[in-house]
Amino acid sequence: MTVADSTRTWLGCVLPVAWAVLLAGCGSAMSGHPVALSPTAVTRHVSVELPMLLPDPVQFPAPYAAVVLPPEAAAQAAGDLNGIGRGADAQPSGCVAPEQKFGPDQTAIAVGTDNDTRATMTVELTRTDEPLASLRARLTKCGSVRVSRAGAVSTVTTELDPPPPVDADDALALRRAVASEVGGARLTQSMRTLIGQVGDVRISVTYMSFAGEKPDTSALDELFTAAVRKVRTR
Predict the structure, then answer these.
(1) Where residue 14 falls among pLDDT bands split at 50, 70, 90?
(2) Can you point out the beta strands (E) in 129-169?
(3) pTM summary value
């Protein structure tokens, strides 16, 4: 056996042991799972106007027939999505989001409806200077909110899910239920929402139903990915 052969044999035995020791050392020094840092400020303006960034109605997955809402209808739809409409009183009071602005380049909404189940898929784009980290922190403290408006009372419960993998500056996912009394009957509105942020544009896609059926998560993922991609690439 030559010196070179002996050296190769020695390295072949030692290096795996050395790697095992190093990996064991790393494993003992670290615990938990890596977590990406969320941006704490909005530093980029997306110059394209929001209506131009909405997915086209034909991009909504079947069977959701979609329309773009006019500005006057967007305010009502936005209140339905977060469970706290304009002018409502919420307790705890710190759970009310900053006042949302409505206008051609402030809020844009498209809604697709499954005419058989009456479930909806809604894409909402908003212009904001609030980082998604602030929304995440607010939602963490506001798991249950009591909302009253014009004599009607409802309870909004929100749970955070693991964020979706998407090409955005930041993202989060949530489940939300709005339980209210309507004409003596109890009505529960169930939602799954995926939210991403690209610069100063926040992209929210929500599946909503009143029947309590299993949410259409495949269609939700598909539409959310398309909505974020359109904002990211413009």
Answers:
(1) very low
(2) 144-149, 152-161
(3) 0.81
Within its chain, how far is the Cα of 132 from the centroid?
9
CA pair distance 111, 77, nearest whole angstrom: 9
DSSP 91-116: ESGGGSPPPPP-STTTEEEEEEEETT
Distance between CA 221 and CA 35 in Å, rounded?
Answer: 22
What CA–CA distance (Å, rounded) separates 184 from 157?
21
Tokens 């400020």 map to which residue?
41
Place of tokens 């993202």: 171
What are the start-end ranges of the H helices in the chain? Answer: 3-29, 50-53, 71-82, 132-141, 217-232
Q: pLDDT grade, residue 12 (50/70/90)?
A: very low
